[in-house]
Amino acid sequence: MAIKSILKMGDPELLKVSQRVTDFSSDELHILIKDLFDTMAASDGAGLAAPQIGVLKRVVVFGVENNQRYPDSGSVPPTVLINPEIEVLRNSFQEYWEGCLSIPGLRGLVERPDHIIYRGFDVNGEPIKIEATGFHAIVVQHECDHLDGVLYPMKMKDMSQFGFCEELDAAQSR
Ligand code: NI
Q1: Residue among 13, 98, 126, 143 flagged as catalytic
Q2: Taking the CB of residue 154, how many other CB atoms lie within 10 A of it?
């Protein structure tokens, strides 16, 4: 369908709360999902939320297979998740250096629950219920935050752990 331009941090649209999907049979929804996958693939991203392409609907896509930007991530199957809900299963946390297509070139250390169940609906309106840990759990939480207008720097506890990817990589290899 189409590769859309991705809104960047500073655009007030990214801070809005998205609306639930009510009609699963609309062409509009199916075009949106295709556009999200096309745009994510073109940017080599691990996930993308509808508000990032300017559509304030509660729809996210994610998936990682051999992505060089996330070499240690394992693989997460390509997934469409509509009207998601997240339940935290255990009170344990993991830290991960997150990036975001709306915040290009930067990375920050974020702590999130490491064991969740997410529920929602697939492209056909069928219910989804999946348990996730590790990178899979992170990517789902990161994308779902976008639906509530939350970007990962807003979740950071220590802003000294935020920087340009180039500089962070250079520092690490010194
Ligand atoms: Ni993001």
Answers
A1: 143
A2: 11
